[in-house]
Amino acid sequence: MPVLVESLDREGRGIAHVEGKAIFIEGALPGETVSYASYRRKPSYEQATATAIHEPSAERESPRCPHFGVCGGCSMQHLEARAQVAAKQRVLEDNLWHIGKLRPETLLRAVYGLAWGYRERARLSVRLVPKKGGVLVGFHERKSSFIADMRSCEILPRRVSDLLLPLRTLIAGLSNPTRLPQIELAVGEAVTVLVLRILDPLSAADEDALRGFAAQHGVQFWLQRAGPDTAEPFFPPDAPPLFYSLPEFGVQINFRPTDFTQVNQAVNRILVRRALALLDPRPGERIADLFCGLGNFSLPIASRGAEVLGLEGSAQLVRRAEANAQANGLAARARFETVNLFEASNCAALGVNDGGFDKLLIDPPREGAVEVVKALGANGPRRIVYVSCDPATLARDAEVLVQVKGYRLAAAGVINMFPHTSHVESMALFEK
Fold this sequence. Notes:
By secondary structure, this protein is α/β, with parallel strands linked by helices. It has three domains: about 5-60, CATH 2.40.50.140; about 90-115 and about 265-430, Vaccinia Virus protein VP39 (Rossmann fold), CATH 3.40.50; about 120-185 and about 190-235, CATH 2.40.50.1070. The chain is built from ten helices and 22 strands. The strands form four sheets. Strands 7-21-22-20-19-16-17-18 form an eight-stranded mixed beta sheet, with helices on both faces. Strands 1-5-6-4-3-2 form a six-stranded mixed beta sheet, with no helix packed on it. Helix 1 crosses helix 10 (about 390-405). The longest helix is centred in the first third of the chain and has 18 residues, at about 80-100. It is flat and about 65 Å long. The N and C termini lie far apart (about 55 Å). The relative contact order is 0.11.
């Protein structure tokens, strides 16, 4: 029976209702009349796939990628790019209202960049599948542990997409291709690095093959034998370092290929610009940057004359943030400490919660920063910029800030860091 799709959920699925039951339909868009086939039935909802589009939306587009619908890397290529951004804005607003009972005083204009070829960080799986012709290199299939049979990828930079098939051939020719399960991609401004996760030592012939591939395709191979910190450069040994720049702030940030950095550096530049415009750091102010990583926000803050304390749970990232501050001539105004920010007592000990800092920037992982915001006292920072990769935890933390701690939600908006996916990155401004 055809149904009318009413809206999109946060996973990019169309939502319809049949006799009071919600139907979440993959491949369906708001305003469309579709037929569907359910693959999971529960008392209050069903999950389904669209089998026919009877009345297509004016915002429907033909997916650019031939692997769309099979590959799990994208879920929204069938929706026009500007409509994707609008849908993400609605997800943010819905979460703020339904979870936090809040509406921002101002909706910030959405931040977005190029829709294709943007993904400069990725983790590609590798598997020998004789039934599919040999080695596969790519993302997992949707809702599956299988690897998609990818010949190209529209969201990877073109030069990287063009390596997918040559990488298959390279790995198939190694002495034991079943012992190389993963390739991590990191694109810098001067070099493209491919980190090979190897479970067994390479033979001399294997190493020669890697050297030849790197020289032919202009990439650098790193080898990772265990955890991320075991990754080391292999060939060429004299490749330039990985870095990205924030030209507006005169900052260059060096990183290792296994460090966390944003996948979309063009949008990251706009993200940092907006965050600092909202934070408005001034000379002489003391500002804390929580979950600071490599100093993506800390160093631009320091470049504006403020004193910044970056707090981060990873000691390795703190060391690299300190090195970046030194390299950029900002060590006098930027210092960093290793702190578990999921324990409120640590924030209290550093003065973050009550009078120690004028302003606060928070950029947590998906878990959010609820212990941090719960610890804020009456003399806490007068302004907070919160960068979020999960609108639900942002809404939860926003409720604490507004309803309990006396802040107002002055502004909020989305950053389309991951076009064609349902991932919602956002930013919010809280003021006393």
